[in-house]
Amino acid sequence: MQDRERAQVVIIGAGIVGCSAAFFLALKGWRNIIVLEQGTLFKTGGSSFISPGLVFQLHESRTLTVLAQQSIQLYRNLSLRGQSCFHQVGSLEIARTSKGWVDLKRRVGLARSWGVRHAELLSPNDVRRALPLIASGAVHGALSVRSDGVAKVGDLIEALAIQAQRREVKFWGNTTVTGIEHSGGRVRAVRTPAYRIPTEHVLICAGVWSPLLAEMVGLTLPLVPMQHQYVRTSPLDELADSVEEVSHPIVRDQHRQLYFRQHGKSYGIGSFQHEPLLVDPATVAKHSDTETPIVLPFTARHFEQPWQDAIRLMPPLNTTSLVSKVNGLIPVTPDGLPIIGEAQRMRGLWVASGSWTAHAGGVGRAVAEWMVDGASELDVSDCAIARFDAHAYTPAYLRLHSARTYTSFSQTTHPRSQSEHPRNLRVSPFYERQKELGAVFFDHHGWERPQWYEANSTLPRVPQIPDLSGWAGHNWSPIIGAEHVATREHIGLFDLTSLIQCEITGSGALKFLQTMTSSQMDRPVGRVAYTLMLNGRGNVQGTITVARLAEQRFMLGLSTAHDLVWLQHHLPPDGSVHLRDLTDALCGVGVWGPHARDLLQKLCEQNISNKAFPFYHVQEIAVGAVPAIALRLSLAGEMGWELYTPMSYGLHLWDILWDAGRDFHILAVGHGALDSMRLEKGYRRWGIDITSEHTPYEAGLGDFVHFDKGEFLGKAALTQIKRQLIRQRLCCLNLHDTSIVPIGHEPVYSGDIVVGFVTSANYSYSMQQCIAYAYLPVEYATVGTQLALEYFNMRYTVTVIKEPIYDPIDSNMRG
After folding, report:
1. Which of 186, 414, 492, 813 is a plausible cystine mate for 347, CB 3.0–4.6 Å?
2. For helices 16-27 and 357-373, what crossing angle results, to 10°?
3. Is 82 left (phi over 0), alpha (psi -120 to 50) or beta?
4. Phi and psi (nearest 5°) for 344?
5. DSSP readout, 410-471?
6. What is the average pLDDT across 359-376?
7. 414: Cβ–Cβ under 8 A, 6 or more apart, which residues?
8. Selection from 710, 716, 733 nearest residue 798 by Cα
9. In this structure, are residues 38 and 113 in contact, taking their beta carbons and an 8 Å threshold?
């Protein structure tokens, strides 16, 4: 097959995401960019073409909110043939119930935390004034965001393409991709029926067709095409004099899972209320007649109840008929977030799919920054393809969770909400023992991880503990506090099996880790180091612990699966370094508390005194007859060890620790207590308190950067950052009112100015006070500064305090 020309990147799909990515890649200096579209250019048959164009910025995910903000910034500056591509008409998120109204008080706080402009709560009368079509008495109020609006999607696609073409991007329509060539774990070319395009970068932006393209290189993409209904009414008498395509605010009805927008003299209504209607990607036929989008037959029964609910909200709709009924396809992922990033096992194969119009501009920008700079300016780790575990690629899991996601698209999901199915996918060897103790399990990447144990309900209740209810009390128990205090007084046994572990070996292992981390790795065998991985911007890409087991053998404790992929993508090509994922091979327990040494010494023949086994050291020991790798460190901030052993030994390890621990008042402790204990110690949690948007100095981790060790990834950028003034710092805040316990994302004020938002918060059961962490501008980051924290639209006084609040000199852990 003849080569047509070489491309630096081939983008497959000329919908709104593909055109956005092409524009930003060209803006960042890439050349020889080719965009392929199987249909007619700028009238594609995918979800972009059927999109109603609604842009609601606010989302429970900060990432999606910022992506929408970036999208609006892009859309507002684009026009086609002299006409704007975006109508900034605002939005109304209505509350039909008193419970919904209370939740809007929380969500307006999110809007302020995320920097969403012009967000405010409206009374029922204000709602009627903003949109008279809404029935009197139908709502308890609404959240208004005046900076939201409607995108003219078809015009946006063409306008973005024109801007990209001015930067020499080439668009080839009516061109079907028939294959993606690859060798040596890297893409090499894209094939079409007529020619071949050599390239080392392919970006899939094909929406519902994306799984079919990934299959061309033997990969499964966790995305399912889903049927979605959208209707348009005949003209309303109330809009007879309307001359604007859109003048009414767009509307979101969380309770009834509906959304609305004006179409001139008519209205459009979309529904997520009906049962999920999944479509096998293999049956998504090639769409060549792109004058009409790819649609399926409209099933009227699925719109009967949504139509009645729409009329109850807006009675004038009852005088209209449905003149357009579309049952289109939208791409849905198991968690409802887009898929962005490079495939783990295929270098050069990139994906930007599963996003909505509201986020498409930001997604295109993020993937372009990632491809060019090695990391996006915005942390998009919760959208990265690396977030998916192996079970997420199985058809059964993909179908079940994508269906669950579809039904919750327009609903509020609590951060501690738990899915009912499928469960027991991954269990530790201790699982049966934990069930006997009444463990309440939370799903953590498929692992059944105890959050607390009902067997501990007889423990003394912590004095003055807040009686949490409502939002803060969801999936919470006072047993968590009792377990917390009991661990600090005796011994807690924690299941650490779900933590990600890997092994680095080979002749180049030390050199590789020196390059990939910010701390000195050339330490004696037997030492453990806490360190950072940085990206090219000098920001924190991950936090890890590194235990040196031999000269060229290291065991790493990682924060997330992203860390594993990050290391894999940076392995030297000469084969001098080998990385092995140990997560499913090892189980782990934390043995922490004042009597941890007494217990472990009872079972070990080795001397584990403080002198023989100091803090932040590692040894291979025998616990009874169980071989274990023991790390002298503690996530709980108490003296003790992490013990790792092959899964086959796990149950016996638990049993002998449990039996021997009875003399020391041992108890099984869940991760609910572990979170409150780590927060008392000021331990940062990756993805919550630290992201790739933060420098080590902002996060309070500057001590883990060793410039004198030689070159390492991010050093050059960090050198420049160090010379500049640090503009914000992560601070600990004490809430004066202990009756409330925020759980994160609440805005922090100085006067009427939002100066930050909460990353983590919890009740300190040891110190009997509520604490929260937040990044604050340096002028507010001084101990003693008084600020205010907003919680459900009420403000509470907070004070910046010195951290950590518990055992600041680590005397407990080092004893």
Report:
1. 186
2. 40
3. left
4. -65, -40
5. TS---TT----SS--SB--TTHHHHHHTTEEEEEETTEEEEEEEGGGGGSPPPTT-----TT
6. 97
7. 471, 474, 475
8. 733
9. no
Q: Check residue 419 and give left, alpha or beta (phi > 0: left; psi -120 to 50: alpha).
A: beta
10: tokens are 């081939």
CA 583 to chain centre: 21
Contacts 24+ apart (CB under 8 A), 68-71: 68/358, 68/359, 68/362, 69/114, 69/115, 69/116, 69/362, 70/361, 70/362, 70/365, 70/378, 71/151, 71/357, 71/358, 71/359, 71/360, 71/361, 71/362
pLDDT of residue 698: 97
Q: How far apart are alpha carbons 93 and 87 in whole angstroms?
A: 18
Closest of 413, 415, 431 to residue 497, by C-alpha? 431
Helix ranges, 276-356 (H): 304-313
CB 616 within 8 A of CB 527: yes
Q: Please, which residues have CB within 8 angstroms of residue 28's CB and are 6 or more apart in sequence?
A: 368, 369, 372, 373
- Mean pLDDT of the 74-80 span: 96
Tell me the pLDDT band of 281, cut-offs 50, 70 and 90: confident
Of 545, 645, 547, nearest to 603 by C-alpha is: 645
In 3D space, the residue among 330, 353, 287, 332 whose CA is nearest the CA of residue 11 turns out to be: 353
614 within 8 A of 784, measured Cβ to Cβ: no
- CA-CA-CA-CA torsion sign (300, 302, 303, 309): positive
Q: How crowded is the C-beta side of 344, counted as CA atoms within 13 Å?
A: 19
Helix H, strand E, coil C: the string for 393-405 is HCHHHHHHHHHHH
Written as six digits, the tokens of 242 are 């309307």
Distance between CA atoms of 409 and 314, rounded to whole angstroms?
Answer: 22
Distance in angstroms (rounded) separating the CA atoms of residues 632 and 813: 9
Q: Any idea which residue has 């680590």 for tokens?
A: 810
What is the sign of the dihedral through the CA atoms of 54, 57, 58 and 63? positive
d(CA 772, CA 762): 7
State both tokens at 752.
Answer: 């009427």
Q: Strand 540-550 relative to strand 553-558: parallel, antiparallel, unpaired?
A: antiparallel
pLDDT for the residue 44: 61
Q: 530 forms bridges with which residues in the sheet?
A: 545
Digit-coded pLDDT (tens) for 395-443: 999 999 998 888 887 677 888 999 888 899 999 999 999 999 999 999 9
C-beta separation of 36 from 177 below 8 A: yes
Count of all residues that appear for the chain in the document: 815
443-469 residue pLDDT tens = 999 999 999 999 999 999 888 888 888
State pLDDT tens for residues 552-585.
999 999 999 999 999 999 999 999 999 999 999 9
CA distance 21 to 470: 42
pLDDT in tens, 725-765: 889 999 999 999 988 999 999 999 999 999 999 999 999 99
Q: How many CB atoms lie within 10 A of CB 525?
A: 12
What pTM does this model have? 0.96
* Amino acid 462: pLDDT: 87
Tokens of 588: 């782990």
Nearest-Å Rg of the Cα atoms of the chain is 28
- Rounded distance, CA 790 to CA 796, Å? 6
> Which residue from 690, 763, 400 is spatially nearest to 535, judged by alpha carbons?
690
Beta-bridge mates of residue 690: 686
